[in-house]
Specification:
Layout: E1 2-9, E2 17-21, E3 26-31, H1 37-47, H2 55-58, E4 65-73, E5 79-87, E6 92-96, E7 99-100, E8 113-116, H3 126-139, E9 144-148, E10 160-164, E11 171-175
Parallel strand pairs: 3-9, 3-10, 8-9
Antiparallel strand pairs: 1-2, 1-4, 4-5, 5-6, 6-7, 10-11
Length: about 180
């Protein structure tokens, strides 16, 4: 299963609803510092039950709850919708395809994507970055790869570039 789209509602720096669609292959998420690039990876991991933090670090300032909906598509166009909410008291709920569920029912073995934050490659010199990106591009022919990066050298490898605008958490999506 790969990520088809993501809907954030008051999650971290994203105020209100924000929807993001993802392409197959390699997606690079870019933007200036503090625009929310890493928050997209955090949101995916939160929906999957892999990211925990205090409610005040997950909920947009002044709001009472946050939610993330992750929609995945599998073989034969099978769709899995994962929706996780958290309120200011730390109470979480999880629904899969509209039914109340828990993390033990998460089909992790069916997921066919890799998430990489900027820590995975920021310290590379130019030659090492090229080798890293060549390997990622090869991997992206077999599975979906989502990479946070501000390095322009990564853009040439991307099947999709998602560019976050400064301070507005408004998405400008550039598809190649």
């Amino acid at each position: 299963m790969i990520i088809n789209f993501l809907i954030l509602n008051n999650f971290k720096s994203f105020n209100g609803k924000t929807a993001i669609s993802f392409a197959n292959g390699l997606t690079v998420i870019t933007g200036l510092n503090t625009t929310g690039k890493s928050n997209i990876i955090d949101a995916i991991n939160f929906a999957l039950g892999k990211y925990k933090a205090k409610p005040e670090h997950l909920i947009n300032k002044g709001k009472k709850e946050a939610s993330v909906r992750l929609v995945l598509m599998g073989k034969n166009k099978y769709i899995l919708s994962i929706h996780r909410k958290i309120n200011i008291y730390g109470e979480e709920s999880l629904c899969m395809n509209g039914r109340i569920s828990d993390d033990k029912n998460m089909p992790y073995n069916d997921f066919n994507f890799t998430l990489l934050d900027s820590d995975s490659h920021n310290q590379f010199n130019h030659a090492d970055l090229k080798t890293f990106m060549d390997k990622l591009k090869e991997e992206s022919s077999k599975k979906q790869v989502i990479l946070v990066s501000t390095k322009r050298d990564t853009f040439d490898y991307a099947d999709q570039i998602i560019c976050l605008q400064t301070g507005k958490n408004k998405l400008k999506i550039i598809k190649i």
